[in-house]
Automatic annotation (TrEMBL):
Listed EC numbers: 2.7.7.85
Assigned protein family: Belongs to the adenylate cyclase family. DacZ subfamily.
PANTHER family: DIADENYLATE CYCLASE (PTHR34185)
Cofactor needs: Mn(2+)
Record protein name field: Diadenylate cyclase
Length: 270
């Protein structure tokens, strides 16, 4: 009579590594005696003091996003290689690990999202909120029409010093933050006008309608991208901000950090 190993054996046969997402100490210890197996702990913290650890900036509720981010982080840190067969163990219904899936590491699907979150000055929740706003705007546009937008996130004081107003600032005396549904509606409405949004490390909307003034010299962006992307790249070279740019022409969302393009996402595929 067949046992569970016979049914599920293929799930963990010939694997190269196991990724444990936020394991308890007792769960992690189960793997200490397993020979010839790389164990990678993934989580917002490392309470088990694992030697091999990938930090998550957020406790992603969506299990697909959680695993995707963990894989990109492991690839970025050279802990796994393209083509590796992996088992990912994580929690879905409770705090303890209760879900196991088998995946193949694919470097070609590397989006750069790990680079966007890790070691950025702005809070991860703020980056996530702005990225999701840009993706939603890319999907729906402004009143059904494609729209472009530029969000500068973090190091707001320096960004303001390297830019000038194109019009009045509707957020000058307000204390609203990105992520609030009502505020997001306002940002979508204002996005149809020229200029960049400036957002603080903590998510406060500092300004709209800013013209970014840093020199574009030395900033390398893909051919076909225009002034909005060039300005987005240049401001991150001269400050500790990141920028998230929605292209009106091709509808893609791109992110820049330290003067370089680090992320390119199709909103329809996100």
């Amino acid at each position: 009579m067949a046992g569970l190993d016979d049914v599920f054996g293929d799930l963990y046969a010939s694997i190269d590594a196991v990724l444990l997402f936020s394991p308890s100490g007792s769960y992690y210890e189960r793997f200490s005696d397993v020979d010839d197996l790389d164990v990678i702990v993934v989580g917002t913290e490392n309470p088990v003091n694992a030697d091999v650890f990938v930090e998550l900036p957020l406790a992603f509720d969506d299990i697909k996003e959680r695993i995707k981010f963990g894989l990109e982080g492991a690839i970025e840190q050279d802990l796994i290689e393209d083509g590796d067969q992996l088992v990912c163990a994580t929690s879905l219904y409770g705090d303890e690990i209760d879900t196991v899936s088998r995946v193949r590491a694919d470097a070609e699907t590397h989006t750069g999202i790990y680079d966007l979150f890790v070691k950025s000055r702005a809070e991860p929740e703020v980056i996530k909120a702005v990225l999701e706003l840009a993706i939603e705007l890319g999907k729906k546009g402004q009143k059904g029409k494609p729209v472009g937008a530029l969000f500068v996130v973090g190091d707001a004081g320096k960004v303001m010093n390297k830019s000038r107003p194109l019009s009045y600032n509707p957020f000058e005396k307000s204390h609203v933050h990105v992520g609030d549904p009502i505020v997001n509606v306002m940002l979508k409405e204002f996005s149809r006008l020229d200029g960049a949004f400036v957002i603080s490390d903590a998510g406060k909307i500092v300004s709209a309608y800013r013209y970014l003034e840093p020199s574009a010299e030395g900033v390398d962006i893909p051919k076909g991208l225009g002034a909005r992307h060039m300005a987005g790249g240049a401001i991150t070279r001269d400050t500790n901000a990141i920028t998230i740019v929605l292209s009106e022409s091709d509808g893609l969302v791109r992110a820049f950090k330290a003067g370089e393009l680090i992320l390119e996402v199709d909103p329809e595929a996100y």
